């Protein structure tokens, strides 16, 4: 089957993503997000996300089929994210995918969400094919992972990941501290426009020589979040600042700089250590202006080429899941048996 028609289902976090591809061609990519429902909690509430998936799935599948101009019967396969992600949210997608595949008598492919993010690159319009090996940095509200990709379908190695909060989660939590709305990433990005990134030196997690021995490619953002909280507390407690507003712009710019610095430093360290002159970026945090700017600047200086798919493919979506399955099919890989389940900590 040279150009398989695949429908992909993604429900690992708060986006219900349904994508349809024919081989490497994107036919539709519908996304329903429950983000608004999480806003008053300042972060994704797993049970709310799972229920929202349940409600959004059928209409999203219908919309994706209509947009692609195909019917369920025409599909060659169904693909679904089986992990990693929120257990309850994943379960909804996996259940739906199994039901669909069994009722249609179509093969079912269970795929890894992180590898899906890498596969999203294939759908970038007019892009040259991804060259191997490449280092991938995936940063979102749910994950912060650094991977060594020698081959998309056979050889992806996790080099490191966050040991506590994801980078996007840190943006969301710090935004909340600064009384900015959810999701915090875009708000901090905006607030930082008028701020000085060097105003406050916030800590770079797991970057000391003693940390690097064990955690060279791992990330930690909870200490940074605490450092911001302590800074605000000290500022407010200082008599000299009575009547002065907390300098939100400087805090936002300095916090953002700390996150960006660590992400880019570690990603480029992996490129240098492993002799890989290519870096692929993915995940919703890639929307961050400063992250893209610093990554491009420092990568150029290091002789590393950076690839950034369009944002609609960087954030969680079903098309990346569909195209990964299409690649697996084209490379001769057989379907999953129905024995798999949702696995919130699924390894790559
Ligand atoms: O990949 P994504 O859309 O969804 C999941 O994490 O599931 O990523 C959302 C995350 C949120 O934490 C949001 O605050 C963050 O990406 N984000 C940003 C920006 N835009 C979104 N973080 C930093 N700067 C941004 N401009
Ligand atoms: Zn993701």
TrEMBL record:
**GO terms, molecular function:** tRNA N(6)-L-threonylcarbamoyladenine synthase activity
Cofactors named for this entry: Fe(2+)
Q: Which residues form the Gcp-like domain?
A: 26-322
Q: In which domain of life is the source organism classified? A: Bacteria
Q: Which Pfam families match?
A: TsaD
Q: What UniProt keywords are attached to this protein's entry?
A: Acyltransferase, Cytoplasm, Iron, Metal-binding, Transferase, tRNA processing
State how the cofactor is bound.
Answer: Binds 1 Fe(2+) ion per subunit.
Q: What is this protein called?
A: tRNA N6-adenosine threonylcarbamoyltransferase
């Amino acid at each position: 089957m040279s150009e398989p028609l695949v429908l992909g289902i993604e429900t690992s976090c708060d986006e219900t993503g349904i994508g349809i591809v024919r081989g490497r061609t994107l036919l539709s990519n519908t996304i329903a997000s429950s983000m608004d429902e999480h806003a008053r909690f300042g972060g994704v509430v797993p049970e709310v996300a799972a229920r929202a998936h349940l409600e959004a799935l059928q209409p999203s599948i219908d919309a994706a089929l209509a947009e692609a101009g195909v019917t369920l019967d025409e599909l060659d396969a169904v693909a679904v994210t089986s992990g990693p992600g929120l257990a309850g949210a994943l379960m909804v997608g996996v259940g739906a995918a199994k039901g669909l595949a069994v009722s249609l008598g179509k093969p079912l492919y269970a795929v890894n969400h992180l590898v899906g993010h890498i596969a999203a690159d294939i759908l970038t319009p007019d892009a040259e094919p991804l060259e191997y090996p490449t280092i991938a940095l995936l940063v979102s509200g749910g994950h912060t992972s650094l991977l060594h990709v020698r081959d998309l379908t056979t050889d992806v190695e996790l080099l490191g990941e966050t040991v506590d909060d994801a980078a996007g989660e840190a943006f969301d939590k710090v935004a909340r501290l600064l009384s900015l709305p959810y999701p915090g990433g875009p708000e901090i990005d905006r607030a930082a426009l008028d701020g000085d990134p060097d105003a406050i030196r916030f800590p770079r997690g797991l970057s000391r020589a003693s940390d690097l021995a064990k955690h060279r490619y791992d990330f930690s953002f909870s200490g940074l979040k605490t450092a911001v909280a302590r800074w605000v507390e000290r500022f407010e407690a200082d008599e000299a600042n009575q009547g002065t507003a907390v300098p939100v712009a400087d805090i936002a710019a300095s916090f953002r700089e700390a996150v960006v610095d660590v992400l880019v430093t570690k990603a480029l360290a992996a490129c240098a250590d492993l002799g890989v002159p290519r870096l692929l970026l993915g995940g919703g945090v890639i929307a961050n202006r400063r992250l893209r700017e610093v990554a491009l600047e420092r990568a150029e200086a290091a002789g590393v080429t950076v690839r950034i798919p369009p944002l609609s493919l960087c954030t969680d979506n079903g098309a990346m899941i569909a195209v990964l399955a299409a690649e697996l099919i084209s490379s001769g890989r057989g379907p999953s048996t129905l024995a798999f389940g949702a696995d919130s900590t699924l390894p790559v």
